[in-house]
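Q: I have two molecules that I believe assemble together. Could you output structure tokens for the complex as a whole instead of separate predictions?
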Amino acid sequence: MSALNRLQITWRAAQDIADHQVVNLGIGLPVHCSDYLRPEVDVILQSENGVIGVGPLAAPDKADTDLVDAGSRRITLRPGASIVDSSWSFAMIRGGHIDVTILGAFEVAANGDLANWDMRVPNRGPLVGGAMDLAACAREVRVIMEHVTRNGAPRLLEQCALPLTAVRCVSRVYTDLAVVDVTPQGFVVREMVAISRDELQAKTGAPLTFASDCKLLTAPAIAVPD
Amino acid sequence: MPIDKRVSLNEALDGVTDGATVFITGFGGAGFPNKLIRALRERGPKDLTLVVNSATHRYSLTHELIAADLVRKVICTAARGHDKEPSPFETRWMAGQIELEMVPQGTFTERIRAGGAGIPAFYTPVGFGTELTRGKEVRRFGARDYVMEEAITGDLALVRADIADRTGNLSFNYAQMNFGPVMASAAKLAVAEVRAVSDEPLARERIQLPGVYVDRVVAV
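A: Yes, here they are, computed for all two components at once.
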């Protein structure tokens, strides 16, 4: 069946980023999408700490401790980059100037509701960061996540059980098993790995419909470092 | 008399009292005013309300204020520790010894901006339908629901910048800027910790925060 690994999921998400888009990649797995953009695509990566035009990670000997992204990674600037304060950065997000954000998630509901900020971990404080702003206000919200939890429970659901990040915001979900669009008719599978439709449905907590041109989901071999 | 906002680290926090609401800059590893945070801990005012992006960031000394039990409440966007053991914030929060107000980051910075800009409240779509905005006024504009959020103002802002001049004008290094401009604007007393104070006035095009918003500058 060859399910995608985590980096292959980010590769697949990266293929859908279009030329000249302004893109915000969430902290964690989504930032790796920048490694797999199609070569002909030129984009502006926005980081919510105010860096408009994030470049590749800085070499250790060239790193400046103040030149970081929202995930505290030491970065470089792409040509034409600028840096603004947090208020302006979020005005940019809230004002609809981010074309696409790609976020990690715990759960997505068939109506597009997103839960990605509070896993209700006992004895840990909450962390929302900029997740709600991005989810509510980016022009398009796409999600990367494993299709099921570590215990095998579905993450694509009729209704989110975990606290919501934003309502009716997600348009597309990339998992290790499928590419699923959120539509007014619910989840529509656009691509899936070589398993049966019944198997995919069994791992999903809401009804799936399958696009008439539903394709095989594949990705090049990418090793996940330990 | 010419304006001169330079002070020593010892004088930087003169006048800070118990119960103060304190803004602390820094995000993503850049812009933490750690010398001023430590000076505040040594001064030791109690019952503080901290307004800080993260209560637990590993590069910020904010945790020292919390560990010293000087803090009554934290308004922040992140309160999760990085280590296996709970952070000083988390242990106190779980024990009910410290209050937490968790705010989406864009709402957080806009509430502070509003505080410094004379706007008492505003409507935002962010957080609608989530538990972080439960109980807040909701109003529909066009086809979308918005939540009313109130401004935040404070007594003291601790701001990290790169270079200042005697007028208090600030220039930031890369992403050090983050919450500096809004936090300085919303506080009665804004103190900037900088790498250097220039004897000459900063060139106009280098000034990212006018000295009007900055009361004291300390070279560290």
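A: One point stands out. The CA atoms of residues 112 and 152 of chain B lie 5 Å apart.
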